[in-house]
């Protein structure tokens, strides 16, 4: 799996990542969601460069214009809840894309909240056979949610191409996906890669709980 880490380059994306992490800023939920969304818009633009292009002829009022556009049949897939603003950012850019959703939420199997498991209930997706699947979720911690979402989507057809995007990844989550996707067919695009996770499998330094910051606490 190829890994692209936007934190290694200088761009305005880093400003938005700083704001979603910043305890002084992240409590403004609308700003938090909008920052995730515009990180998605920028990632979508960068990822669009990796699609397959061919020249088209466009009829203008005054003649024919040759233009190179992509031919991929794009489907944007995300994981409830925190994935929703990131999905919106991608859809703002790939406005003709198909859309796929899965509910994958983490829960603690033990009362000490040290062992995380992931539960999937709901999946809504078009046929994914032959599609270019953009699987996006703001947080990549243990990698369980991303892995289970991928396996759930695979039951609805085998995509021709998979590109994964997350805003904050743990090194462990990157390594987990590296084991799942050996070779360089799949690319993982990260806003930043953080070194650790705490005992509750939250990314450190991370940003906290992305779903709660975007939509409020859950029971
Ligand atoms: O890599 P993992 O260890 O699976 O953790 C990452 C997942 O955890 C968060 O979802 P959560 O389960 O908190 O649900 P939420 O998005 O509704 O908050 C986040 O949105 C990712 O989906
Ligand atoms: O740090 C983390 C890890 C998983 N999910 C989150 O929302 N934050
Ligand atoms: Mg959460």
TrEMBL record:
It catalyses: UMP + diphosphate = 5-phospho-alpha-D-ribose 1-diphosphate + uracil. This is Uracil phosphoribosyltransferase. Keywords: Allosteric enzyme, Glycosyltransferase, GTP-binding, Nucleotide-binding, Transferase. One of its GO terms (molecular function) is GTP binding. InterPro entries: PRTase-like (IPR029057), PRTase_dom (IPR000836). Residues 11-216 form the Phosphoribosyltransferase domain. Its EC number is 2.4.2.9. It comes from Bacteroides clarus. It is an enzyme of class 2 (transferase). The keyword Membrane does not apply. Belongs to the UPRTase family. Pfam families: UPRTase. Its cofactor is Mg(2+). Pathway: Pyrimidine metabolism; UMP biosynthesis via salvage pathway; UMP from uracil: step 1/1. SUPFAM superfamilies: PRTase-like. Catalyzes the conversion of uracil and 5-phospho-alpha-D-ribose 1-diphosphate (PRPP) to UMP and diphosphate. The keyword GTP-binding applies.
